[in-house]
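User: Modeling request: complex.
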Amino acid sequence: MFDALTEKLQQTFKRMRNKGRLTEADVKEALREVRLALLEADVNFKVVREFLGRVEARAVGQDVLESLTPDQAVIRIVRDELIQLMGSHVERVHMASNPPTVIYMVGLQGAGKTTASAKLARMLRHQGRQPLLVAADIYRPAAIDQLKVLADKIQVPVVTEPSKTPVELAELGKAASRRMAKDVIIIDTAGRLHVDDDLMGELEAMNARIPANEMLLVVDAMTGQDAVRVAEAFKERLPLTGVVMTKLDGDARGGAALSIREVTQLPIKLVGSGEKLEDLEPFNPDRMASRILGMGDILTLIEKA
Amino acid sequence: MAGFFERLRQGMTKTRTGLGDKIRALVGGRQWSDSLYDDLEEILYEADLGAQAVESILDQLRQRVRESRPERAEDVLDLLRQVMVSMLESMPNPYELTGTPAIWLMVGVNGTGKTTTAGKLAERMKRRGHSVILGAADTFRAAAAEQLMEWGRRAGVDVVHQVEGADPAAVAFDTVRAASARKLDLAVIDTAGRLHNKAHLMQELGKIARVVGRECPGAPHQVWLVIDATTGQNGLEQARVFQEAVNVTGIVLTKLDGTAKGGVAFAIHQALNIPIGFVGVGEKLDDLMTFDPEGYVRAILGMEEPH
Ligand SMILES: Nc1nc2c(ncn2[C@@H]2O[C@H](COP(=O)(O)OP(=O)(O)OP(=O)(O)O)[C@@H](O)[C@H]2O)c(=O)[nH]1
Ligand SMILES: Nc1nc2c(ncn2[C@@H]2O[C@H](COP(=O)(O)OP(=O)(O)OP(=O)(O)O)[C@@H](O)[C@H]2O)c(=O)[nH]1
Ligand SMILES: [Mg+2]
Ligand SMILES: [Mg+2]
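Assistant: Request completed. Predicted assembly structure:
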């Protein structure tokens, strides 16, 4: 797939060039293609507006006006801004100086929390940690079975006990970590809507009893405009420390990553790239920027070649 | 149970930044001016309708505004509502059963609500007097069959299943066989979530449909593509590819009890002419409603219920 945005910008600038020298107005006009591309990538409408403001400030400069390839000059600025916004270095999951480290996985229904919990346990084990999983989703049918099956595959123990509340389960997890000499507790929580006051309160209560070192918001890469509202609402009530983006093995552009970053300033720490437990990777801002602009496939192809 | 419109409104009113308030503030008592188009555009984009649908809606709105020259902003909003409703279409009767037994297939990307909706549909159809069986053709995801079996218990419906890792087409086949042998009215077959860009998984889905069709001519009679309301523009590509692989006959739009508006279903309908049959409004057995275009558009636009 060739980069559709570059192509469009090329055409636009070519049309303008035919009239003579490029003007600032031309560049602004061309940025409308960028706007459309970002909206198509599911970047939040308001975030697009602010982002384009910054891009425009740079793009009306001489570099672009005098460039022989103004389309590429614009793309470069857009990409730079995107990368800068999303953080230029790889963020990691922090371990408490005084173990056990407590990690909560939270988010909307079906985002990928349970899968990501097991993936993270696997990753940490490969890094020499001793993780323990807590099955704190007592609502969804077979949620506990699901976590158990996954944990079995990576041979990580799961704390679960019938008719306990999520708060009690978190406590049990902490106690078990002592008993079993585990240094990381990963708590898989039930999916919930950010507007569900009771269930949001439940997470607050869990965190009050067993405070999080990391509280990761798990977000589906296919999420559209609502991502911002969801992330803001979770952040308002909980001490979120980062984001896990899932299902990046799909072909969604993943504009939600940009929106969430801009609005909440939360770092994206990990990405899920498949249903298998090894499909968890550190977040790469550079690659994400390319992906949002529709150049992701090219990068991946180059890497795989 | 509250009406369609009220159920959708619940999620929105729970959030301070709800579109309803915004749009009321926007048009309340004001005169229409063309600058308000930008605000309407924003509202449509924020409902995930996407560039193409937004453009098409606003073009038609401009046309109607030119024709009828409304003065108040409220009147323009009402024109917008009319335009949007006219672009949607509900299924005449999503409960309709064709085929004996009728075979329904639940398909979609990961985590959208296929299994939950299969359970809800089974219960609903049973309550409407039909005999129903469920088939657990997701043999891939951890504890997927256990999840469906719990829904089967809740709905009071048997579930055909095999061990994890079994051939999903074989489970689908068994389900159709069981439905025929027991002379049941309907079999609802759950399938594993799959991303549409994975060709081998889409082929697997095609195979399930073919196997079902060989056993029961005309089957699957309904293929429900389950779309999560929080999905952005990728939903369009999902629908396109699933449509190609298994001839999707209707959409179920889930998780409309949140703040997401599911506008991509509107875009899908625009682009591919796939109607929306049901919407999911929660995690309980009863949280399923037939789609009502009027109520849906009013909810997107934050309008009041008609009296
Ligand atoms: N392709 C792909 N699928 C994923 C990824 N992460 C999770 N999934 C799938 O997405 C679906 C939902 O994942 P879960 O881990 O059950 O999600 P959850 O957030 O725990 O869901 P609830 O507990 O119901 O809220 C499953 O089918 C997973 O296999 C990923 O990175 N890529
Ligand atoms: N709030 C809300 N949650 C829903 C709705 N429908 C399903 N869910 C939840 O979404 C999550 C995923 O639902 P599933 O039915 O497991 O989705 P699925 O498509 O079968 O997932 P995979 O088989 O893993 O691809 C579960 O936590 C459900 O309880 C709905 O209408 N509203
Ligand atoms: Mg889960
Ligand atoms: Mg399922």
